[in-house]
């Protein structure tokens, strides 16, 4: 070959330009050998007298070249094009040492020019993927990443994705894209994305498929809104009403979790029974009058109709003719007229004297407010304070000097530490929270109904009073100054203690304490939460107190940190309920503190408002105290006898409500109320009657228990 080169260079082809170096119009390019097929390399140069290939530094034999000569029509210069073939065996000879490459060298009379190197590689694609996608279950709107690392190959494999054997095109779906590492990414999972996904790798040699990965997009269930409360189950007496919700917002799909919590809620309701009126016995006959008649009367009062019952039918007055020495058909004389006038005058005088006596009695009793007690009586032993004389026009405030001989001490209980020092709340010797003696220290609500109505009328002008009950049965109220005092709702265990100096000097507040029925206030409960105390309001809200007031109320929880998570809830000004304190946890605020005892809790707060104690069971050992109370008619006038069983929260306020209801129904308490520990076992409470003589009585229940 070298000799041929010399000869060729020494005798250039006629017509070649003597002063131009050859330049390549076509240079060899990188190629791949697929299986055992040889590849062809080509190059073309002008002006060129000779062209040869050199592969991996060695000249290719002249006989392996295929040469074509032509002339460039534009310049008239000679053009030479050369082809060679490279086989798989040639490449495999140097496999592992270096890559196989070839280069063209062109000659002219002016010198030589080399083309670019063209690499010849053996193409292949291995069978096994380095990483395949795996099946997954994801929640709706969650992101998904399906990894795929294709098999090793030359040239590198291109990757595409199939969804249920259809090509995934990111250009058509903005929710899908493929990363440079070939992973398929779904930004937010949709129900339509539930499918089998396959990673496909391909190059010029082969096409490989990964194992299919099943992607399941599930939807967790959500509760719908509660339906309206149903009507009361009974038309007379105590019954139940319920409401329900469904797990359809959304409905669980593809194995998603079902809704947690109850789908039915029940609450007690009471319907007053209608009582039909009945006549009393006739009175005795009157004396035969001047008109020769006598009469007798009766009243519709045994019983009187109430609660929509029917009135008595028949006459109320019965008259009959009679004869006696007084019977006369003559007109009354002047003497009779004078007698009647005298009797009327005497009656008017007696009425006036009675009114004067009542006014004098009321004026004497009006000097004291039945709902306000002196601070020194209610809180004997508080830190002594100087007392300003009361104004002349405010006779309802007592200003008796407190007992200055008693000593004071700081309360040493588990009161939450405050930033303003421990001396802010000075408590007396002895336990502050112990019940006060019968009426001697306790402020009972004993005002006449007219005063209660007047107080409610004054409060009703305020916006915060709109959510309070309109009656005064479950309310205590009073007017307080810096001396403080205590309010108590009788027979409920609910009281509010305002210590001395809690109200700034010179300020006078009208304070109320109210017990709410559960149906009056909407307290939303979530999951396994349950109400553990009555819902109590004290106010008015926004009152400025310089010391914490103490709100006491009962509860029905068997407290245990392992079984219960107990929270104190307070209703905000917007009407939403907020957790202000979690018992047993580190307090997040110093505005509230709650001391929980066996049957009562004591809330220390400087902000009055509406409070309730709510618990959530942490285990099936959590239990509430229920009180089992039985009432029945005092007599059995017919062949039927009804026993009314009440399962109540073990707090005084609920028992008081039932007793008031049974007084209206004429019921009688059977035995002593029993305490029942009701555990969170997800089972119903079942009631049945035992030891009933079958020969004397037959149960009307359709089942053996209710």
Structural write-up:
This protein is mainly β. Among the domains are: 23-124, Immunoglobulins (Immunoglobulin-like, Sandwich); 126-218, Sandwich (Immunoglobulin-like); 222-271, TSP-1 type 1 repeat, CATH 2.20.100; 475-623, Chondroitinase Ac, Chain A, domain 3, CATH 2.60.220.30; 626-676. The chain is 11% helix and 32% strand. The protein is built from six helices and 42 strands. The model is unreliable at 1-17 and 367-450 (pLDDT under 50).
Q: If classified by CATH, what would the architecture of the domain at 475-623 be?
A: Sandwich
- How helical, in percent, are the residues? 10-25%
Strand percentage lies at 25-35%
Radius of gyration: 51 Å
Output the keywords.
single chain, 706 residues, mainly beta, Immunoglobulin-like, TSP-1 type 1 repeat, seven-stranded antiparallel β-sheet, 42 strands, 11% helix, elongated, disordered N terminus
Summarize it.
The protein has 706 residues and is mostly beta strands. 11% of the residues lie in helices and 32% in strands.
Write the layout of secondary structure elements.
Layout: H1 2-10, E1 23-26, E2 31-34, E3 39-46, E4 50-55, E5 58-59, E6 66-71, E7 78-86, H2 88-93, E8 100-108, E9 111-114, E10 118-125, E11 136-139, E12 144-146, E13 153-154, E14 158-163, E15 166-167, E16 176-178, E17 184-186, E18 195-202, E19 207-209, E20 213-218, E21 237-244, E22 264-271, E23 293-297, E24 317-321, H3 334-365, H4 375-378, E25 408-410, E26 426-428, H5 449-459, E27 475-480, E28 485-489, E29 494-498, E30 509-516, E31 529-531, E32 535-539, E33 549-554, E34 564-571, E35 577-582, E36 592-596, E37 600-605, E38 610-617, E39 623-633, E40 644-649, H6 652-665, E41 667-669, E42 674-679
Parallel strand pairs: 2-10, 11-20
Antiparallel strand pairs: 1-3, 3-7, 4-5, 4-8, 6-7, 8-9, 8-10, 10-13, 12-17, 14-15, 14-18, 16-17, 18-19, 18-20, 21-22, 23-24, 25-26, 27-30, 28-29, 29-33, 30-32, 31-38, 32-38, 33-37, 34-35, 34-38, 36-37, 39-40, 39-41, 39-42
GO molecular function: netrin receptor activity
Protein name: Netrin receptor UNC5
InterPro entries: Ig-like_dom, Ig-like_dom_sf, Ig-like_fold, Ig_I-set, Ig_sub, Ig_sub2, TSP1_rpt, TSP1_rpt_sf
């Amino acid at each position: 070959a070298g000799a041929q080169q010399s000869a060729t260079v020494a005798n250039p082809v006629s017509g070649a330009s003597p002063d131009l170096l050859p330049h390549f119009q076509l240079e060899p390019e990188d190629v791949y050998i697929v299986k055992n097929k040889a590849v062809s390399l080509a190059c073309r140069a002008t002006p060129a007298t000779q062209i040869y290939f050199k592969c991996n530094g060695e000249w290719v034999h002249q006989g392996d070249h295929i040469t074509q000569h032509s002339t460039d029509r534009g310049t008239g210069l000679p053009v030479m094009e050369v082809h060679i073939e490279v086989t798989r065996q040639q490449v495999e000879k140097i496999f592992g040492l270096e890559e196989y490459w070839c280069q063209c060298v062109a000659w002219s009379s002016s010198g030589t020019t080399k083309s670019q190197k063209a690499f010849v590689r053996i193409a292949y694609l291995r069978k096994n993927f380095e990483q395949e996608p795996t099946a997954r279950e994801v929640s709706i709107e969650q992101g998904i990443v399906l990894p795929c690392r294709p098999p090793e190959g030359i040239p590198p494999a291109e990757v595409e994705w199939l969804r249920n054997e259809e090509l995934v095109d990111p250009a058509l779906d903005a929710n899908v894209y493929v990363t440079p590492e070939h992973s398929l990414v779904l930004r937010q999972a949709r129900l339509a994305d539930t499918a089998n996904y396959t990673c496909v790798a391909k190059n010029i040699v082969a096409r490989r498929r990964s194992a299919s990965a099943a992607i399941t997009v599930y939807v967790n269930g959500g509760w719908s809104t509660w339906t309206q409360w149903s009507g009361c189950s009974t038309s007379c007496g105590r019954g139940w009403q319920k409401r329900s919700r469904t797990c359809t917002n959304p409905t669980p799909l593809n194995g998603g979790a079902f809704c947690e919590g109850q789908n039915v809620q029940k609450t007690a309701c009471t319907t007053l029974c209608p009582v039909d009126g009945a006549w009393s016995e006739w009175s005795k006959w009157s004396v035969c009058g001047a008109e020769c008649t006598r009469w007798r009367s009766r009243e519709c009062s045994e019983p009187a109709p109430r609660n929509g019952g029917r009135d008595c039918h028949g006459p109320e007055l019965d008259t009959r003719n009679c004869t006696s020495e007084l019977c006369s058909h003559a007109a009354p004389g002047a003497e009779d007229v004078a007698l009647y006038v005298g009797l009327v005058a005497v009656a008017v005088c007696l009425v006036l004297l009675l009114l004067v006596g009542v006014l004098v009695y009321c004026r004497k009793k009006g000097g004291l407010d039945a709902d306000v007690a002196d601070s020194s009586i209610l809180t004997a032993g508080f830190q002594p304070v100087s007392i300003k004389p009361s104004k002349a026009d405010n006779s309802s405030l007592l200003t008796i000097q407190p007992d200055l001989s008693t000593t004071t001490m700081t309360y040493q209980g588990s009161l939450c530490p405050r930033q303003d020092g421990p001396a802010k709340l000075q408590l007396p010797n002895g336990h502050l929270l112990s019940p006060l003696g019968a009426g001697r220290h306790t402020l009972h609500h004993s005002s006449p109904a007219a005063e209660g109505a007047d107080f409610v009328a004054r409060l009703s002008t305020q916006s915060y009073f709109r959510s309070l009950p309109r009656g005064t049965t479950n309310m205590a109220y009073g007017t307080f100054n810096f001396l403080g005092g205590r309010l108590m709702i009788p027979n409920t265990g609910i009281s509010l203690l305002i210590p001395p100096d809690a109200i700034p000097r010179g300020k006078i507040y009208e304070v109320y304490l109210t017990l709410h029925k559960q149906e009056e206030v909407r307290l939303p409960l979530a999951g396994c939460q349950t109400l553990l105390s009555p819902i109590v309001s004290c106010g008015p809200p926004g009152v400025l107190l310089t010391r914490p007031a103490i709100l006491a109320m009962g509860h029905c929880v068997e407290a245990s940190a392992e079984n219960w998570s107990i929270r104190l809830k307070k209703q905000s000004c917007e009407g939403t309920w907020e957790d202000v304190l979690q018992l047993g946890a580190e307090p997040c605020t110093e505005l509230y503190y709650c001391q929980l005892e066996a049957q009562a809790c004591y809330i220390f707060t400087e902000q009055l408002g509406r409070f309730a104690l709510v618990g959530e069971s942490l285990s099936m050992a959590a239990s509430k105290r229920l009180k089992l109370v039985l009432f029945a008619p005092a007599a059995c006038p017919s062949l039927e006898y009804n026993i009314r069983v009440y399962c109540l929260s073990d707090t005084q306020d609920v028992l008081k409500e039932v007793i008031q209801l049974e007084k209206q129904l004429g019921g009688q308490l059977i035995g002593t109320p029993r305490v029942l520990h009701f555990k969170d076992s997800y089972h119903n409470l079942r009631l049945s009657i035992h030891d009933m003589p079958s020969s004397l009585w037959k149960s009307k229940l359709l089942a053996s228990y209710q």
